Amino acid sequence: MLTQMIIRKLFNLRNANKRNNLKLSQRCFSSHLPELTKNRYSVKRGNYAVLTEDHKQFFIDLLGSTRVITNPDECLSYNVDWIKNVRGYSTCILKPKTTEEVSNILAFCNDNRIAVCPQGGNTGLVGGSVPVFDEVVLSTSLMNKIYSINDTSGVLVCQSGCILENIDNALEEHGLMAPLDLGAKGSCHIGGNVSTNAGGLRLLRYGNLHGSVLGLEVVKADGEVIDLLSTLKKDNTGFHLKHLFIGSEGTLGIVTKVALQCPPKPRAVNLAFLGLQSFEHILRTLKRAKQELAEILSSCEMIDASTLDVCTDNLKLKSPLSQYPFYMLIETHGSNNEHDQEKLNKFLEDAIAEEYILDGTTTNEINKMKHIWDLRERITEGYTKDGYVFKYDVSLPIEKFYSIVPAMREKLANEDTVRISGYGHLGDGNIHFQVSAREFSQQLLKKIEPYVYEYTSDLRGSISAEHGIGFRKPKYIHYSKSSGSIKIMKQLKTMFDPYGILNPYKVLP
Ligand code: FAD
Ligand code: MLT
Ligand code: ZN
Q1: Single pTM value for the model
Q2: 24, 310, 393, 432, best to mutate for ligand 2 pocket (most atoms within 8 Å of CB)
Q3: CATH 3.30.70.2740 is the classification of domain 386-467
Q4: Where is the FAD-binding PCMH-type domain (predicted)?
Q5: Going by CA atoms, what residue is nearest to atom 22 of ligand 1?
Q6: Which of 47, 131, 171, 407 has the most CB atoms in a 10 Å sphere around its CB?
Q7: Which residue has the higher pLDDT, 2 or 121?
Q8: From the CB of residue 346, how many other CB atoms can be counted at a distance below 10 Å?
């Protein structure tokens, strides 16, 4: 039986979904810095200019001295990624406010062969957002204007440095919400989301950014501004160039403005947290949830027992259930709470009667939902307390979704690890698979890679479902892309950025 079936009739629409306020930038950067990327991975610096005082003076004349950061202590957080896997040593961080300033910076860098690392909220998980050597960091953190929100069409137009959570809060005033939601929403920027084609917790329902982004404004490496800022839902006039910039991780251009299609904020939100015995039962529950919850299903996530421990043991969060081998979060978004609850309850009662689910709790109370979502959204943070995290993000055929975890446990049985576990976006076939260890080790890395990519490729999966290729995966891209498509990607890179100044050492092999 469900032990804690909590069903509240009243639902506070205004605060629904306001569940994560992680201010990721407040982390302490001074402790446990990773080794410099160039040393750890033996990378050779490209033939780029070394920044001179004259170059810096140009930037100061353009932006003013407060928007050009050169103090080493202040530069540090822009040089280290969120999970402290990689570290560069840029001595110059630029903070433009306008497209024109971005354009002037890039034109100058292009003329002088200065390498540039575009950076949004620096929450990326594949080492794409920080320099590898001394690239100038172009931070969009001051490009944070929301220009318009249309209540009727649901279209928002903003600058690329707007924080996702701020966008969501502004949309709420108009009865709308952002089409994507992720644990990093208190820090990540919409431009970073677009540039990584971020997925998140609601993709199952609202689709990915190739669908939600209606238009973009982009600055090319030579400073040319390309206006692709359509706000139309339908526009079949020739090639849809915006798609090239969605997910290209800052290698083809800098996204400066975004037009986003936003759905209405749901009037009814219900959440179930379930305990299950096996992955077989998870699959049956997923199938049933899709059939029976159908149009109201908005999230379907899974967590294994070892992953939940990073929240309960490392972060001291409390689980509302006792211990089970697997857990699922199922969320519904709809317009009629009574209807949605009836559907959810019927689905759960049937699943319990047929013994798919061992235990569970449901709620539509804001604080309780936030508490449960914390157990899912704070996993990334919880892992960092184990030490070093070898992090993988793969798509696999749904029947094989979890198979990579036992396979890796067997392979690493004799290695010194803290935890090998998996969780993720079950409804999208995207598992996040982790090996944590007290510290980074080349030996462990060699045991995991390329095995993890071979495993994925043999099943015709994707070696990066949502985090991108960044610095950590270019040499493995061929496991998911044909030589023909890699060749075209290189040709496009040369066309958009002939001197390769934009985010070098990333994405392309
Ligand atoms: P950054 O990390 O700053 O940059 C990411 C990449 O985009 C870099 O290559 C950078 O050069 C480039 N870039 C940034 N801004 C621009 C721009 N304006 N123009 C051109 N290039 C640019 N990701 C998911 O997909 N789903 C999740 O559920 C998810 N959850 C997360 C939870 C946590 C706690 C954390 C820490 C991360 C999570 N991520 C997730 C990863 C990360 O948040 C996303 O990749 C996010 O989209 C990155 O946005 P950002 O602004 O932080 O970009
Ligand atoms: C998530 O789904 O939690 C994110 O993609 C972050 C991660 O994988 O750590
Ligand atoms: Zn994810």
Answers
A1: 0.95
A2: 432
A3: yes
A4: 86-265
A5: 250
A6: 131
A7: 121
A8: 12
